[in-house]
Design brief:
This protein is an alpha/beta fold and 237 residues long. The chain has helices spanning 32-42, 58-68, 83-92, 113-122, 168-179, 189-196, 219-236; strands at residues 3-9, 26-27, 30-31, 48-53, 73-78, 100-105, 128-134, 141-142, 148-150, 158-167, 203-206. The chain is built from seven helices and eleven strands. The chain is globular, with a radius of gyration of 18 Å.
């Protein structure tokens, strides 16, 4: 059994603006994807890293890995049009159903070693693991007219983060069923397991408010501050 980090880097980043996919934007002296890879490279319990990216960035990723000496990056794969295509490509690249696969958004560069280790620990008891933080805002549901239909109790609501971890056999079975569904619609891997393997419990690891995802240009300034502070703390240690 191995602990394998899957860095999902196939997005186009159109909401951030510019021609460069957001995972390759420079923040705090490095590209976002470099910060994300290094979070798993530093973690002693991660055995291997697999990067899934756009086909036109594969050669560039090989150069980046070699330049930085990322010894744990063993595979660089071509993703696809949809996010789940990247997940499926990674699942198919491995064969041992006992391996732990941790799927992580390349644009969440502040994932902590504590979160990674908690996911690995949870996978000794569960076959599927999510990461989330408590919702602090009131959430409303609206109808097609934009009118409120429900205000769910936020004590039971969470904002999902990554990584999402699975036994390879579990996520493989979920996607085998999903890909056979002509009406497949999925936005994340835990959602796929919940829909297609409804009897499989999904444990939720406590996330962190700093484990933010770069979505909009305004997020860049906050990430700059967080990454610089994190680097300074690491340097002191």
């Amino acid at each position: 059994m191995r602990n394998i980090a899957i860095i999902l880097a196939g997005g186009s980043g159109t909401r951030v603006g510019g021609d460069t996919p957001k995972q390759f934007i420079q923040v705090a002296g490095k590209q976002i994807i470099e910060h994300s890879i290094e979070a798993f490279e530093r973690c002693g319990r991660i055995d291997e890293i697999c990067v899934v990216c756009r086909e036109d960035y594969i050669a560039y990723m090989h150069e980046l890995v070699q330049r930085n000496g990322y010894s744990k990056v063993k595979k660089i794969l071509n993703g696809g049009k949809e996010r789940y295509h990247s997940s499926v490509a990674a699942i198919q690249a491995y064969t041992d159903d006992d391996d732990n696969l941790l799927f992580h958004d390349a644009v969440r560069p502040m994932v902590s070693e504590r979160i990674i280790n908690d996911c690995i620990n949870a996978l000794s008891r569960y076959n599927a693991v999510d990461v989330a933080v408590k919702t602090t805002d009131t959430i409303i549901a609206v109808d097609a007219e934009g009118c409120i239909t429900d205000t769910p109790d936020r004590t039971h609501l969470r904002n999902v983060q990554t990584p999402q971890g699975f036994k390879r056999g579990t996520i493989r079975q979920a996607y085998e069923k999903a890909l056979a569904d002509p009406y497949l619609v999925t936005t994340d891997d835990c959602g796929t397991v919940r829909k297609y393997l409804p009897e499989e419990p999904i444990y939720v690891v406590e996330g962190e408010n700093t484990n933010i995802k770069l979505t909009y240009r305004e997020d860049l300034l906050l990430l700059e501050i967080l990454l610089k502070n994190n680097h300074n703390q690491t340097s002191v240690l």
